[in-house]
Design goal:
The complex is a heterodimer of chains A (115) and B (114). Chain A contains no helices and eleven strands. Chain A has 115 residues and is mainly beta. Chain B is mainly β. Chain B has no helices and twelve strands. Classes of the chains: A mainly beta (115), B mainly beta (114).
Chain lengths: 115, 114
């Protein structure tokens, strides 16, 4: 079946550096991808909606200059956390919407720890 | 590891019908359980949650009870509306290796016809 690959699964970075997380749809095209984050013991929060070839739509309260989203192709969206701080440490997960069939698939998520 | 098994769809109902979407889970320890909903063209939204056994989550007429003895968290609604047409995801959040990770079911697409 359709698979969404998210990479890296785990990443540790130093404060002030930037880190990129990739979300790939492996065997289908996805015009829309969604990025979420989850803080410990809390539910998932939508950060932004990423549309291929256009600017991402950010949810209220999400800093677009800090969380850069690029959806350059129908199979790849990237989330870059710029100038990371410890409070950015979280679980980030993406989902991709298959063009045909209107089905959504989730990546496995990425753990970010900022030290 | 932790896993969620969700009733496969699609599910098609008439308005005012009773809805049940089954969800069972496998987890170590005491996970929190969630139902998320994704309406057409929108991102995922939290519908309801339960954090311990016998808790009942409810929202917008939907209910789900955390049943530890049957490891289930079935979603129910007594009378569905056309506006409930969406994809529903069951999920759990539990500790693995000292960190919490959200695990999703595959989703169930619900279509409600007038």
């Amino acid at each position: 079946g359709a698979v969404v690959s998210q990479h890296p699964s785990w990443v540790i970075c130093k404060s002030g550096t930037s880190v990129k997380i990739e979300c790939r749809s492996l065997d289908f095209q996805a015009t829309t991808m969604f990025w979420y984050r989850q803080f410990p013991k809390q539910s998932l929060m939508l950060m932004a909606t990423s549309n291929e070839g256009s600017k991402a739509t950010y949810e209220q309260g999400v800093e677009k200059d800090k969380f850069l989203i690029n959806h350059a192709s129908l199979t790849l969206s990237t989330l870059t956390v710029t100038s990371a701080h410890p409070e950015d440490s979280s679980f980030y997960i993406c989902s991709a919407e298959q063009v045909l069939g209107n089905t959504i698939y989730f990546g496995e998520g990425s753990w970010l720890t900022v030290v | 590891g932790n896993s969620v098994t969700q009733m496969e769809g699609p599910v098609t109902l008439s308005e005012e019908a009773f809805l049940t979407i089954n969800c069972t889970y496998t987890a170590t320890g005491y996970p929190s359980l969630f139902w998320y909903v994704q309406y057409p063209g929108e991102g995922l939204q939290l519908l309801l949650k339960a954090t311990k056994a016998d808790d009942k989550g409810s929202n917008k007429g939907f209910e789900a009870t955390y049943r530890k003895e049957t490891t289930s968290f079935h979603l129910e609604k007594g009378s569905v509306q056309v506006s409930d047409s969406a994809v529903y995801f069951c999920a759990l959040s539990g500790s693995q290796g000292g960190s919490e990770k959200l695990v999703f079911g595959k989703g169930t697409k619900l279509t409600v016809n007038p």
